[in-house]
């Protein structure tokens, strides 16, 4: 059983994101505007709040990787919460996104590492090392909208994320606006098990309850894991 593929879109192309972040770099230089926060700021703060509640700042600071980091604000907020700068890494396949993220962090005196990395390049991703937390807000969605071979790219993405997690207790946190929880569970079943769902705002229409976005925490599928609720 598999999920139906999404229709291809310009949102799944490097050209779209380079053009978008080129404008945001100029806006930041001219007006100090850090740019759009994907899925809105509330979504980002919910994830950070969950991390602080569940993980906190351990004595041995966790390494955190933000895939498709965009303007880098997710890691900047974690740094403000006390996470060690040296343990925070953001990657994006858009050089302009990394330019924007690096400029914002530098201007705020935050020594966070941002690098241009394509998650489809498994060999280059190995040099990133391993992480206790891998975070994705919208990157899996964008890959799913790629006009060319989205199914293969989604499979490569999952293999890359699996390789980037330290061990069975590491967390993969993903927020999606294109896939439901059931679809994500089905697509990720071979490599990951659900740890918990992070509650998101719901709406009711036609007698059915739904969510605008879905946020799920996964762990590696190494053995049977009891599914918890947050």
From TrEMBL:
Function noted in UniProt: S-adenosyl-L-methionine-dependent protein-lysine N-methyltransferase that methylates elongation factor 1-alpha.
Domain of life of the native organism: Eukaryota
Record's keyword terms, sorted: Cytoplasm, Methyltransferase, S-adenosyl-L-methionine, Transferase
Cellular compartments annotated: Cytoplasm
Domain Methyltransferase span(s) in chain numbering: 63-193
Record organism: Drosophila lebanonensis (Fruit fly)
GO MF annotation list: protein-lysine N-methyltransferase activity
Enzyme kind, highest EC tier: transferase
Family: Belongs to the class I-like SAM-binding methyltransferase superfamily. EFM4 family.
Gene encoding the protein: LOC115633119
Gene Ontology biological-process annotations: methylation
Signal peptide feature range: none
Pfam families from the UniProt entry: Methyltransf_31
Protein name: Protein-lysine N-methyltransferase LOC115633119
Gene Ontology cellular component annotations, sorted alphabetically: cytoplasm
EC number: 2.1.1.-
């Amino acid at each position: 059983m598999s999920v139906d593929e999404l229709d291809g879109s310009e949102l799944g192309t490097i050209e779209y994101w380079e053009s978008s972040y080129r404008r945001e770099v100029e806006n930041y230089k001219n007006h100090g505007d850090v740019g759009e926060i994907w899925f809105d700021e509330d979504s980002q703060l919910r994830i950070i709040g969950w991390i602080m509640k569940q993980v906190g700042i351990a004595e041995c600071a966790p390494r955190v990787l933000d895939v498709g980091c965009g303007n880098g604000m997710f890691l900047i907020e974690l740094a403000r919460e006390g996470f060690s700068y040296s343990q925070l890494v953001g990657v994006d396949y858009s050089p302009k996104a990394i330019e924007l993220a690096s400029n914002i962090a530098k201007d705020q005196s935050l020594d966070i590492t941002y690098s241009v990395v394509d998650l489809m390049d498994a060999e280059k991703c190995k040099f990133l090392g391993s992480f206790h937390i891998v975070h994705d807000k919208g990157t899996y969605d964008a890959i799913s909208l790629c006009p060319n071979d989205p199914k293969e790219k989604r499979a490569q993405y999952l293999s890359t994320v699996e390789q980037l997690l330290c061990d069975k207790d590491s967390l993969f946190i993903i927020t999606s606006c294109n896939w439901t929880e059931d679809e994500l569970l089905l697509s990720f079943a071979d490599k990951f098990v659900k740890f918990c769902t992070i509650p998101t705002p719901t709406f009711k229409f036609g007698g059915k309850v739904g969510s605008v976005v879905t946020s799920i925490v996964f762990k590696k599928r190494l053995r049977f894991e009891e599914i918890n609720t947050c």
